[in-house]
Write a structure and sequence with these properties.
Layout lengths: L15 H19 L8 H12 L3 H29 L1 H19 L5 H15 L3 H11 L5 H29 L12 H14 L34 H9 L2 H28 L2 H4 L8 H4 L2 H19 L5 H21 L5 H15 L2 H12 L4 H30 L5 H16 L5
Length: about 425
């Protein structure tokens, strides 16, 4: 597919120049989002220090985590539409700057109230990132490559989890600083990434002299859900069109369970490995705190693989790739529960938990422009992510209460297994 520019210089969508521009946009979005999780996935590493200083229970800290997740969910429902309306480039940059500021405010907390409110505000600012980057990518890539592209984008998010884990451990174990610095040092990377993205990225192909790319939808049944040509619509009309798409509604429900499982691991695995029993494990071959890094490493690689599989193996029928990984995520989570996590096998099992539980995210996000077209992709992504973090927020205090009551942090793994199985069952009904 190609387009010729009307001037003496030819700008063809299939040309080498356009191809370079496509990859430039992808890498700019990936680099920016690589640093975004330093603004919200570090909380699990601060829990032990916060508990010691403020005397809060795990359930109460679960509510703090939920406040951020629910604010993030509300922000996604709002900000995805803003990205469609005003462009993802500006919105994503603003999110990085504002979230950095909010994290610094959190670092000066003096108790439960001064912790939960700024952390919730940070959740909203964090929600300025994902859908905005997704919207920009939807402008630059067509249907047949979306699984791959969103695989790379979600891979960057998975690497962001690795970065948030590593920087948190460095703050605590290498620099020997207290929990407050977890919210001060790593987020400076996010600030730099947001500024870089704004300087390098461009919103649409026509901003660089190319004609608009015909990004389209995945199949004939979904063509009525796409806005075509230069047609414009109000925010309300855009929301109505997206919410009436029943396949997207089912996908949002399946994604909600998937993200509840994901955050069950992200928040409580560090608590599990930072516990006193792990710290004294006599046969641990490596510092237990570093074992937890196997989780986000698996998540990053899993996301990259699932997007590719949905394109190449299942012909863009994303629900098949989602179901496959969710079933395997349930199995590996139960396996993790049955073995000692400080062993070599435990590290491998934790890697596979991350690989399969987070992997389907790339297929879920590719579904947004697949189902509604690129011009509504931001709104669709926001609605999907609203469901995603609504469910994750509901699960956090529940998991915290179970861990408080039982005293066994390993129970997070069978809980995650059940949630994965439900996600796989719901995804079956997407059937496209």
């Amino acid at each position: 597919m190609g387009y010729a520019h009307t001037s003496s210089t030819t700008f063809v969508a299939g040309s080498t120049g356009f191809r370079r521009a496509q990859w430039r946009m992808l890498f700019a979005a990936m680099l920016c989002y690589l640093f975004f999780y330093t603004g919200r996935q570090t909380f699990g590493f601060a829990i032990s220090g916060i508990q010691k200083e403020f005397g809060l229970s795990k359930e109460m800290l679960g509510w703090v985590s939920s406040a951020m997740l629910w604010a993030y969910a509300i922000g996604q429902a709002i900000n995805g539409n803003l990205a469609d309306k005003y462009g993802g480039r500006r919105i994503m940059r603003s999110g990085a700057i504002l979230s950095c500021c909010a994290n610094w405010v959190v670092s000066f907390s003096g108790g439960f109230a001064s912790l939960i409110f700024p952390w919730a505000v940070n959740g909203y600012f964090q929600a300025l990132g994902w859908a905005s980057g997704s919207r920009l990518l939807a402008n630059w890539w067509s249907v047949g490559e979306r699984g791959k592209v969103y695989g790379f984008y979600v891979f960057a998010a998975g690497c962001a989890s690795i970065l948030s884990y590593v920087t948190s451990i460095v703050v605590l174990d290498v620099f020997h600083l207290d929990w407050r610095w977890i919210f001060r040092i790593p987020v400076l990377l996010m600030l730099a990434g947001g500024i870089f993205f704004y300087l390098v990225a461009r919103e649409r192909p026509e901003d660089m002299g190319f004609k608009p790319l015909d990004t389209g939808v995945a199949n004939e049944d979904d063509k009525g859900n796409a806005i075509l040509g230069d047609q414009t619509e109000s925010s309300w009309t855009r929301y109505q069109a997206v919410l009436k798409n029943w396949r997207l509604d089912i996908a949002a429900l399946a994604l909600g369970f998937q993200n509840a499982a994901r955050y069950g691991l992200i928040v409580w695995v560090p608590v599990h490995f930072f516990g006193s029993n792990w710290a004294k494990a006599p046969d641990a071959f490596i510092n237990p705190k570093w074992i937890s890094v196997a989780l986000p490493v698996g998540m990053a690689i899993g996301a990259l693989s699932n997007g590719w599989i949905s394109d190449k193996l299942f012909g863009s029928k994303r629900y098949k790739a989602i179901m496959l990984y969710m079933v395997l995520g349930a199995a590996t989570s139960m396996w993790m529960f049955t073995i000692p996590g400080h062993s070599v096998i435990g590290v491998a099992a934790l890697f596979l938990c991350g690989f399969f539980v987070y992997g389907p995210a790339s297929s879920f996000w590719a579904l947004c422009p697949d189902l509604v077209g690129s011009r509504r992709a931001g709104t669709a992504t926001g609605i999907m992510n609203f469901s995603s973090y609504l469910f994750a927020g509901l699960a956090e205090p529940l998991i915290g209460r179970i861990l408080d009551t039982s005293g066994n942090t390993a129970l997070v793994f069978p809980i995650v297994a059940v949630i994965c199985a439900i996600s796989a069952l719901v995804a079956l009904f997407i059937r496209r």
